[in-house]
Amino acid sequence: MSIVKTFLKKATPPRIRYRQIGGKLGGLLTEILIGKGLIKRSQENEKVCYFTDKGKKILDETEG
Question: The pTM is what?
Fold first, then answer.
């Protein structure tokens, strides 16, 4: 079997690749915002984040 045929069989649909890229970018953005002190992870659930006072202040400033 040629390399091209093998590659095409293993290739994933674009939708799955976009989800993977979106998930990676979302994770990186979350880590950046945590590093800047704008959001913080919840104690109960690592997937839940909330705005810190610093994050709320910056968000309020950008609204108007």
Answer: 0.67
